[in-house]
Amino acid sequence: MKGRFPLVVGLCLILAVATGLAWQRSRGPSFRAYEVNERPLVQTVVATGRVAAASRVQVGSQVTGAVWERRVKEGDFVRPGDILAVLRADDLEAAVRQARAELEQLQESTLPQAEAARREAEIALEQARREARRRRALYQQRAIPREEMERAIQAEAAAAAAAEQARLTARSLGSGNPNEALARARLASAEAQLAKTTIRSEVAGTVLTRNAEPGDVVQPSRVLFEIAQEGSTEILVPFDEKNLERLALGQTALCIADAFPSRPFNATLHYIAPKVDPQRGTVDVRLTVDSPPEFLREDMTISVNVESGRRDRAMVVPNDALFSQRGDKAFVWKVIDGRAKRQPVQLGLRGLASTEIRSGLAVGDHVLASPASTLTDGERVRIEPQTDSTVTDSPGNAGEDDTRKNSASRRELPLPLD
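The structure assignment produced for this chain is given below.
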């Protein structure tokens, strides 16, 4: 009897363990589950962009020359007409002086001489006319021969022609005459060329880059300065084209500068590019910052969360409970009386952590979270008791296009043991 007692005890222990294992198997595998409930849901499209001016102006030289002086640097604010740089222009200055001297010579020397010649010709004409009249009278009195009278008449005609030529010459050199207009045009052209050596800003804005230093020889095709034109501050964001259907003009966005993550600001979507970049598969979107913070700088990296949808009350499930998503269709493992049932659902707003369920479930239903791929429809499942916890949506990685909801929470709930 004493030898049989330990054997009986061992057999009883083995039988108890086997019975426990069989009972555990009969209850099915253990999974986490979520309770379907309603809460506010906000869907956002997330991407990374950069601060961009409404317009960038590239300033260059219209003439070839060496930089004599540079008057601005990066970060300087300029207004229309402000001088950015000055080129050396000895030859152009000489051309201006020559054109001005020609105009002055025309006005102060050539024209007075022509006027004097006109007056002399008119005096000579008057003398010739008097002499011709006197000769006619003498001829009528037969005091002189006819030949002398004819010579006086010819002299009068010659004097009249000379006077007319002098008048035409003086008139051609008078104020507003073609010669003076041509001289003024030459002067204006020379001054315009000289003015091009003074490089000025045509707009108000901030100097972003400078590519000229004193002594540099510049060509008309070279960009010397780039100016961000004063105006509304914009954020240029290349969104993945898969999110195009979620974007619309007027949507609001929460923006966070990588350099100042604790100081978010708002923006409004006001432009969607009419084409998609075929190389990157992105569409350019511009957002206007109505009240730009003072720390914003051109080309600063900005994380953008565009609000693309909102529900005050939405029936949601965590994303790890959804399987085989195609468009707005998916399925979940719904738990009914301790068994897993494959349940098709229709999706609505989608977030990085949770998704709206439009149909297929009801508030209070329970769905499994990430069950094994070997789970079959109707299989018995069990849930290990867990403490309720609150899980919030994560903000996602900057630069990755996706959707996410707001800070609404979800609860992990244990299912009743079968």
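Interim note for the steering committee: The CA atoms of residues 383 and 415 lie 5 Å apart. The first strand starts at residue 33 and ends at 35.
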